[in-house]
Amino acid sequence: MAAGGYSDLREKLKSMTPHRDEYKNKYVDGTSNGSGKGRKRKYRESDDDDYEHSDDSSELREQEARRVRSSILQKSIFSPEECALIEEKIDEVVSKGEAGLYREHTVDRAPLRNKYFFGEGYTYGAQLEKRGPGQERLYRKGEVDEIPSWVHELVIKRLVSNGVIPEGFVNSAVINDYQPGGCIVSHVDPLHIFARPIVSVSFFSDSALCFGCRFQFKPIRVSEPVFVLPVRRGSVTVLSGYAADDITHCIRPQDIKERRAVIILRKTRPDAPRLDSDSALSSSPPERPVPLKAKRSHRKADPDAAHRPRVLEMDKEENRHPSLSRQRRHSISSENYWRRGQDYSKHRESSGRKVKMRRH
């Protein structure tokens, strides 16, 4: 027996701090002076026990990963020869953009990533007057160029013939052109703008699509994903359900080791809000402007750029920390959920799910 008559050090500590049990029971029982209030968190039953949420968090993580995977369809449709032809067309888009041959809102440039909007374009990120979910707006009709004919002939028709999307589904095509080290921060494609599914086709090189990450800046850092989906050159990825609506997805800088381009094909909702919608009703689409001077050259990135600390000006945004229920407090996806906007359609309101939505 140890000195002082104690065989267990915990018994000695307990006798020295008699208030400890009172403090523990106060919050375990959820009472405070008999009021029934004051419940904060469940304490461990002993010093030797692991935190109770550790196993739960791991299990929730696995469950969420399964839900993500089950709501993704992926197919390899385009051959290397077909990819090469489409990649030539993408290079032509880049050249026309550099020559200023597109409408002003067709081309959107960011460090190590250029976006080309066709059919429909929308405001996001720093372009928003008010930040937050549900604030994105479509541009007026005619403010971005029409979908190129080669996208219809070489890409959309193949997807229709393979049963990926129905005829006439696509009215918005976006080309994202990434240089090594480029990225796009965690986001959910705006629910009030785009119908589901979200379809993307990858070109030039292999990469990965990550779900449930959190970005931090100065320097840029990305948390561990809930799920990582490899995306190969020529592969088609279809997001719907949980993967499209209830968890964010992103492209991490470390996953773009070579130039990569993706064509994103979507359908806008009939009731999607537009900028200046009132004035748009009485105005005709703007005339094509005089060719613009390129905003900057299409630079080639340093291969080590993925590891260089930097701030992405178009992607810079304060992290948001939603208030979640205590049951999800220790879930690794606690940053992935934002309450949906109240102005969504009834069938989306009835779902009652929470997502964290960021622009992209």
From TrEMBL:
Q: Name one GO molecular function term.
A: metal ion binding
**Which region ranges are annotated with the description Disordered?**
1-63, 272-360
Q: What is its EC number?
A: 1.14.11.53
Reaction catalysis annotation: an N(6)-methyladenosine in mRNA + 2-oxoglutarate + O2 = an adenosine in mRNA + formaldehyde + succinate + CO2
The record's section on InterPro entries has:
AlkB-like (IPR027450), AlkB-like_sf (IPR037151), ALKBH5 (IPR032860)
**Keyword field contains Ion transport:** no
**Localization annotation:** Nucleus speckle
Q: Which GO terms describe its cellular component?
A: nuclear speck
Tell me the ranges covered by the Alpha-ketoglutarate-dependent dioxygenase AlkB-like domain, including all copies.
Answer: 90-255
Q: Where is the composition biased (Basic and acidic residues)?
A: 8-27, 54-63, 300-321, 337-352
Instruction: List UniProt keywords, sorted A-Z.
Output: Dioxygenase, Disulfide bond, Iron, Metal-binding, Nucleus, Oxidoreductase
Isomerase among keywords: no
EC top class, as a word: oxidoreductase
**Which cofactors are required for activity?**
Fe(2+)
> Which GO biological process entries does UniProt record here?
mRNA export from nucleus; mRNA processing
Q: In terms of one coarse class, where is the protein primarily found?
A: nucleus
Which family is it part of? Belongs to the alkB family.
Q: What is this protein called?
A: RNA demethylase ALKBH5
> What's the source species for this entry?
Sphaeramia orbicularis
